[in-house]
Amino acid sequence: MRLKVRDIDISSGGPLVAVMNKEDAAALDLHVMDRIKIRKNGRIETAVIDIAQSSKIVPKGKLGVFEEVISSLKLKNNDAVEISIARKPLSLDYIKKKLDGRKLDKKEINQIVWDIVHNKLSAVELTYFVAACYTNVMSTDETLLLTKAMVSHGDTLKLNKYPVIDKHSIGGIPGNRTTMVVVPIMAAAGYFMPKTSSRSITSPAGTADTMEVLTNVTFPIKKMKEIVLKTNGCIVWGGSLNLAPADDKIISVERPLEIDAESQLLASIMAKKHSVSSTHILIDIPVGNNTKVKNRAGAFRLKKEFEKIGRKLRKHIRVLVTNGKQPIGNGIGPALEARDVLWLLKRDPRRPLDLEKKCLFMCSQIFAMVGIKNGHKRALEILDSGKAYLKMLQIIKAQGGKETAAEDIKIGGLSFDVLSAKKGKLVFIDNHLVSRIARIAGAPIDKGAGIYLYKHLNDKIRRGEKLFTVYAESKRELEYAKDVAKQNKVFVVR
Amino acid sequence: MRLKVRDIDISSGGPLVAVMNKEDAAALDLHVMDRIKIRKNGRIETAVIDIAQSSKIVPKGKLGVFEEVISSLKLKNNDAVEISIARKPLSLDYIKKKLDGRKLDKKEINQIVWDIVHNKLSAVELTYFVAACYTNVMSTDETLLLTKAMVSHGDTLKLNKYPVIDKHSIGGIPGNRTTMVVVPIMAAAGYFMPKTSSRSITSPAGTADTMEVLTNVTFPIKKMKEIVLKTNGCIVWGGSLNLAPADDKIISVERPLEIDAESQLLASIMAKKHSVSSTHILIDIPVGNNTKVKNRAGAFRLKKEFEKIGRKLRKHIRVLVTNGKQPIGNGIGPALEARDVLWLLKRDPRRPLDLEKKCLFMCSQIFAMVGIKNGHKRALEILDSGKAYLKMLQIIKAQGGKETAAEDIKIGGLSFDVLSAKKGKLVFIDNHLVSRIARIAGAPIDKGAGIYLYKHLNDKIRRGEKLFTVYAESKRELEYAKDVAKQNKVFVVR
Fold first, then answer.
1. Which of A232, B135, B256, B398 keeps 20 to 30 A from A119, CA to CA?
2. Are residues A176 and A229 in the same domain?
3. pLDDT for A366-393, tens place per residue?
4. Is A7 on the interface with B (CB under 8 A)?
């Protein structure tokens, strides 16, 4: 069937989608969510179809196409294209199989990941996969196959070095910018650490957002390799690289129900580490309020799984279950966190000691993994000697930035303080509310927005003492943040 | 936040969807699949949001809206609307609960069904519900609650009569137009039978499509009641009524994986019967090739479940497991099936005896349920006396049609015969291919298109003898049907 293209000027956000007129669809016996092949000048693309209810949008003889189809086939409005019926992707049978509680083999998992990466599955179909893996939890072997498939259907960074260090902190607590301290320490100690980090999705800042206050974070993989070979380390945004791209698509359908299929969490993290040829991996699982992993039992179960998958991938892996009951560091939000990190690296008395303590502990664990004793002492020496700061500066410059003094980091010009209404001990900090207020104040888009905390758990508090300051760049956002901060118990003093 | 409406001229097919500009979404900390409240002149509607990747479609300050939102809020292009953050529907927590393998209670199932009926759930969210019920099969009590919730969130037909008869045949075999024979027989015997039927989704004809060859099938519920009170029976299209409307929405996300969650199949059928206040229900489960229920063990398990739910709804229920190895009747396609039915009711020698036999058996079962012995004989008397035909005529007229002779039913003007290439016994008929060829020939949209079968299983076949004729209304469709018929083994003679 020959149809004329109608650009409907909207993006599906992934899947290739085309819209047919009711009559044209009936002529080929096609239904919503069936698939067609679209041919144009020797190019062929498969798209999932939707059927227009009125002929207003897609009249008979026209084929409405979403942006993804336009760009894949290089179409223009009114181009003639040839349409035919396409088979369903093979992976639908495999997804059904998993939903039926059966195990998937290598070929099947590979096909599913290939179809995800190439946008062959609709959101509904991908949801069935996520639901299937959530209810019929994948075995370690399946998770391993999923990890490998995610790596192979994406780009990889080949360093040909040993050891290659990596770390990952599972989310949920505000601050916790350990990467920006651990990478310069380990790189200064002579180890390779090609670190990719994420931007914020639901938090006030991801490591990539914070690093961006100091330098560029978006690079092609070739440039990332140059930076690592030159400075031993890097802190770049993983989203600009094409490492294990299936992962982001899976996450997009997990959000509505806040589902975290354990096998996908494992595969996602391990695939990203495997993609940059890491050999020694430290995983940090914080457990506390609003953390991704809800309790210690869950954390230890996850730790075991990480260790199993790590062994099967022939990685050295160490998993820490850490305290996630309060934010780590004082600043929350890109600029405030970046300032904390610079203070820490420059040994400024204003540096957050809780963050320093955690980073030193993590470094000591990494040193132990590569066979170095007294790692804690060594890491502290690297920090105190200023070598870690110099290494950070070298990385910042290699990534195209220049030296910035902590004082020159621009913090939001508008602020308000929250004081304690009573005297007592700080017994609870609501991680979720801290994040939420920082976001409402403008973080991470307004880099200077966020929260600065003066107190930590168990601190003694005087009546009227400052608990935290909220910073914003615009008045409207400050007011809104103020409302939320006043209505809710962010800090509980008792 | 105040935004101006931009009609993006496309329908989501159900869920209320709005598209925001990236910057506007960030200002409210909104992500894809989050929800907003849209206010306009005192009306409020909640919509799921998508975020425009470019500002081409939805510039800052605009709100792109799908057709469903336009019509619900009566919006026009450039109308100013007020936007705020909306909570997620409560039912998402309950869907997650079911996905986690826990049982749902009445309140929870009610909320889910309410949200489905009112288009509050996105396709992805609805998919999680279907997947949850598929993998964590609902208990009989949950299925009962789902059935009742489906009924209560829809319209109902109240007849205040006893008994009220209903029947349902589960799909998969071509032909099988038992409703159009059973309803006039039972109505002629003095019983109320307010029958709603479906149109074809993937078959060459649904009962509603076939009945439409003879009369109207689309009525509001009030008119349906009038027809039933006047003639004892009716055969109308269920889709035009608002009976258990959650069902169609659920089915839409089941198609891609061809999932049939048993609890939903049960709830769907029983809800539709309960909605028209049926008291005595006959269920027909054909088992054979390409039938919905794949084997006898599955059919008997389903039968048990039907009986349990039926008892709990205080219905008299009888479930038949029947032979689905071949089409029932000779004509496949709306006009050809309607002609079979008229021949049968008019006692024409050309009538399909297999369909007659099955209908008489079903009537005998219904008679037995209402305490009448010799039901088979009574049904045959009603048929032979012409009373069933007269009752059908009365129903046809009450539904706005007029008498049509079987000979005057318009069959497709183009046709080709398929002859047997060899001599032997007919050992296999491919139900799926029969349906597919009839559809490709134009059924059910071209009412006259379809297939007429001359042979049934175990018939002796001479070489060169006619096996079936394919009818079409257009040349192109006839040719395409010919290709498929020639390339594949529709009938196997051995």
1. B135
2. yes
3. 999 999 999 999 999 999 999 999 999 9
4. no
Domain end point (choices A398, A430, A457): A398
CA distance B159 to B443: 35
Q: Which of A88, A132, A445 sits opposite B131 (nearest CB)?
A: A132
Residues in chain B with CB shorter than 8 Å from the CB of A13 are 32, 50-51, 53
| Separation between Cα atoms, residue A21 and residue B236, nearest integer Å | 27
A352-373: average pLDDT: 97
Residue B26 contacts A, CB cutoff 8 Å: yes
* Beta carbons within 8 Å of B138's beta carbon, 6+ residues apart: B104, B146, B261, B263
Same domain for B191 and B340 = yes
Question: Which residues of B have a catalytic role annotated?
Answer: 260
- The 3-class SS string of A389-433 reads HHHHHHHHHHCCCCCCCHHHCCCCCEEEEEECCCCEEEEEECHHH
Per the structure, the complete domain to which residue B38 belongs is given by 2-85
Indicate whether A244 and A305 sit together in one domain.
yes
* CB proximity A127 to B under 8 Å: yes
Render pLDDT for B152-161 as a digit per residue (tens, 0 to 9).
999 999 999 9
CA distance A145 to B400: 63
User: Helix, strand, or coil here: B379?
Assistant: helix
pLDDT exceeds 70 at position B53: no
Catalytic residue among A248, A260, A354, A430: A260
Last residue within a domain, chosen from B351, B373, B398: B398
Edge-to-edge strands of the sheet including B424-429? B460-461, B424-429, B491-493
B9 — contact with chain A (CB < 8 Å)? yes
> How is residue A302 written in tokens?
């996850």
Interface predicted TM-score (ipTM) of this complex, two decimals: 0.82
Query: Count H helices, E strands: chain A?
Result: 18, 18
A246-254 and A106-117 helices, crossing angle to 10°: 80
